[in-house]
Amino acid sequence: MKSIKTLIAIFALLSFTSCNAQIKNLKTETVKIYGNCGMCESTIESTGNLKKVASVDWNQDTKMAIFKYDSTKTNQDEILKRIARAGYDSDKFLAPDDAYAKLPTCCQYDRVNKKSKTTIVSTTTNNNVKVDTTLKEETNQLVVIYDLYFAIKDALVQSNGNLAAEKAAALNSAISSIKMEKLSTNEHEVWMKVKDDLAFNAQHIAETKEVEHQRIHFISLSNGMYDLIKVSNPEIPVYYQFCPMANDGKGANWLSKENTIKNPYYGSTMLTCGKTVETIK
């Protein structure tokens, strides 16, 4: 068995070397591509390779790939786009969600979702000419929504009705400014369900300085935010927390950027009442 593996490794090395020898204007680069196993290796390499133009050698242990290509005929981006369309993320391009979902279970690696990457959206054909459509993702516009929500939460922890009202007014304005066409499919679907309730509760928090009234609407605001953030792939962990005493003993949840309990429903009265029930990441 060991000798067979050695022969396979030698054959792969000879093939890679032979392919490189045929490539003119040779340029060599090393990039990171995410994957898990030997099947990933086979797909990544076969997708990235182009006869006499480009060769790819991927290491499943280090996740690093060596690109060798004719710099007059292709470039790193074009190779990475082909690999992304096959379902594999790199540090530069994200694969389409549907391509990732089609990967065998053993190949579905943990995705490192960075909003600064470019997502490969689709590839279409027009008069036999392949057209590559990509979407450059800017900072996710929902981040503003979440940050204002957390600001309201912090204000309620401090029992500061004036600050909570100010941040809620900003949140209400941000909700109306969301461009739904720029949301992902999952985000768009949830946004359509929760946006009216989010705006309603943000408006009511903004219209009063009475902290107890604000806290009542914060319960519903938190429920909608939970549904939304669950499909948004937050860049940092978000903690879903629960206080059994809030809401007249019925219990109520909230979201936090920190695992430490700081209760927005009671503030300093019962600051640490509650627990983390889910970590969203």
Describe the model.
With 281 residues, the chain is an alpha+beta fold. It has two domains: 21-136, Alpha-Beta Plaits (2-Layer Sandwich), CATH 3.30.70; 142-280, no CATH class. The chain is built from eight helices and nine strands. It has helices spanning 2-22, 38-48, 76-85, 97-101, 142-157, 161-177, 185-206, 211-229; strands at residues 26-32, 54-58, 64-70, 93-94, 118-126, 129-136, 238-243, 252-256, 275-280. The strands form three sheets. The chain has a three-stranded antiparallel sheet. It has a three-stranded mixed sheet with strand order 4-5-6. Helix 4 (97-101) links the parallel strand 4 (93-94) and strand 5 (118-126). The longest helix is centred in the last third of the chain and has 22 residues, at 185-206. The protein is elongated, with a radius of gyration of 25 Å.
Which key features would you list for this structure?
three-stranded mixed β-sheet, 8 helices, alpha+beta, three-stranded antiparallel β-sheet, 9 strands, Alpha-Beta Plaits, 281 residues
